[in-house]
From TrEMBL:
Database matches in InterPro entries: AAA+_ATPase (IPR003593), ABC_transporter-like_ATP-bd (IPR003439), ABC_transporter-like_CS (IPR017871), ABC_transporter_ATP-bind (IPR050166), P-loop_NTPase (IPR027417)
GO-annotated molecular function: ATP binding; ATP hydrolysis activity
Stretches assigned to coiled coil: none
Pfam families found in the cross-reference section: ABC_tran
Name this protein carries in UniProt: ABC transporter ATP-binding protein
Organism per entry: Rhodosalinus sediminis
PROSITE patterns recorded: ABC_TRANSPORTER_1, ABC_TRANSPORTER_2
Family membership: Belongs to the ABC transporter superfamily.
Family annotation (Gene3D superfamilies): P-loop containing nucleotide triphosphate hydrolases
ABC transporter domain ranges (all copies): 11-240
Keywords, ordered alphabetically: ATP-binding, Nucleotide-binding, Transport
């Protein structure tokens, strides 16, 4: 059989529309979305509240079904990709099980996937360290701050080795210093693992710092207004944010957001 893994896109949307039927009438959350994300890319979705960023991520994750058009994930339908455990999902809210410890929450997908006990422990310790929660493994979610809970939920999505990581504003609730650090760590992790990351954010610097591709969206109805292929090198110290190249891309994102808003 021909191996299509190297050539097929991680995420491909074609003429995708999604209309929600609500008590107040139809809401077009996504309109004519066409997008290809290659394997190993870091794509950010940025746009004002209500432009359909979360809905698009939910379509990728088979949590919403398009009204028309298509979405493929690793060459499969989103539903088949979900069954193949093609992605880990980090939600806006941490969504940890209150009756499990932090370690128990992070370990859960590994238990479900049948990893050997020793590897579960090793991976859990490693990802908790990565999100600066070493030593909190035996605590319960309610014993941690909201930001720490969110870091635990990131650790959970990182623990099991899906090729695609879907992240819906994972750092939105964190203070800026922690967020900078997690941005650096996420980029390092992306570099090491070659995962495809789809990341929703409201922050222009975050989108520009992290991404190989920035998808600018505009609301009512949610459309893609610009797709920027980043010319920044893969190696990105935080200081890159002060360079003219970085500022130029940030400017283009801002223009795209304003144009979408005016429309
Ligand atoms: N289940 C639903 N039923 C009806 N309308 C919905 C549903 N989910 C989302 N919408 C609407 O679809 C549009 C897009 O919502 P979505 O949550 O995807 O936006 P967003 O860009 O992620 O916003 P935010 O940045 O605030 O999270 C909004 O107008 C929202 O009210």
């Amino acid at each position: 059989m021909k191996d299509t893994r190297a050539t097929e896109a991680a995420i491909a949307a074609a003429d995708l529309n999604l209309v929600f039927q609500t008590g107040d009438g139809a809401v077009q959350a996504l309109k004519d979305v066409n997008l290809t994300v290659g394997r190993g890319e870091f794509v950010s979705f940025i746009g004002p509240s209500g432009c359909g960023k979360t809905t698009l991520l939910r379509v990728i994750a088979a949590l919403e079904t398009p009204t028309s058009g298509s979405m493929s994930v690793n060459g499969m339908t989103p539903d088949a990709a979900r069954r193949a455990r093609a992605y880990g999902y980090v939600f806006q809210a941490a969504g940890l099980y209150p009756w499990r410890t932090i370690g128990g929450n992070v370990r859960l997908p590994l238990e479900i996937m049948g990893y050997p006990k020793a590897e579960q422990a090793e991976r859990t310790a490693r990802v908790l360290e990565l999100v600066d929660l070493a030593g909190f493994e035996k605590k319960y979610p309610w014993q941690l701050s909201g930001g720490m809970q969110q870091r635990a939920s990131i650790a959970r999505a990182l623990a099991f080795d899906a090729d695609i990581l879907l992240m819906d504003e994972p750092f939105g609730a964190l203070d800026e210093i922690v967020r900078d650090r997690l941005n650096e760590e996420l980029l390092a992790l992306w570099g090491r693992t070659g995962k495809t990351i789809a990341f929703v954010t409201h922050s222009i610097p975050e989108a520009v710092y992290l991404s190989t591709k920035i998808v600018v969206m505009s609301p009512r109805p949610g459309r893609i207004s610009d797709v920027i292929e980043s010319p920044l090198p893969a190696e990105r110290p935080l200081e890159i944010r002060d360079t003219p190249e970085f500022i130029e891309i940030a400017h283009r994102v801002r223009e795209g957001l304003h144009a979408g808003h005016a429309a």
